[in-house]
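Could you join me in thinking about how sequence relates to backbone shape in a protein? Label the sequence line and the structure token line clearly, so we can match residues to local backbone shapes. Once you have written the record down, we can walk along the chain together.
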Amino acid sequence: MEVSEHVSPSPSPPMSSTPPTDNIIHPLQPSTTSPSPPLRVSSRTKKVPSYLQDYICPSSNISSSHVNKVCSPYPLSNFLSHTNLSNSQHIFALSLVSQIEPKSYVEAIRSDCWKQAMQLELNALDQNGTWTIVDLPSQVKPIGCIWVYRIKYNVDGSIERYKARLVAKGYNLIEGLDYFDTFSPVAKVTTVRLVIALASINHWFLHQLDVNNAFLHGDLQEDVYMKLPPGLSTSKPNQV
């Protein structure tokens, strides 16, 4: 309710020589309670921790005079510039900040490009037979999962594709109970250099092959129960 600030004063009643005793207002008596003690303020001298001596901390909570002392005499902002970059490099550098990768499913579901990327990921998981939707067994606690979003760029700074990956929270699994062996076969750098050297000596042509969803080609020997990812619905409740 809004109250007006301008209130017209009411007319004062006529003064009486002998006011009634029941309308006499007695002055307030001084409080007998003691005032609260002031808050204790530490008198210890503040200084930057020793582990920060090798770093520049302009946003430290120390006094402003001390902050000016620890700031670098040659700040990076005086030397970092895009003027020396080529046109393609300049476009690529600006494209990295023009697009924002979503941090959650709620943010990604608002854009059609990310919805399509998540649908492609779900289709690949289904075609590779990665999982089977079943009822949750009793006394089994399923693990969770999250969506991870990345933007892939071309060398000229243009967007190649929007990539969405469904990642299981495997850190909730217990070694020896939920899984046993963990390994990932990868190629050594020495092997790659050997192949490139042989191709150069024999004048061979090298072709790059990108296997989409290569990690899905592995087979799990254990039964892992995971919650349904956001965006995937089933006809029955309590399914994993």
Remarks:
- Residues 100-217 form one domain.
- The mean pLDDT is 76.
- Helices lie at 64-70, 87-98, 105-108, 112-127, 189-201.
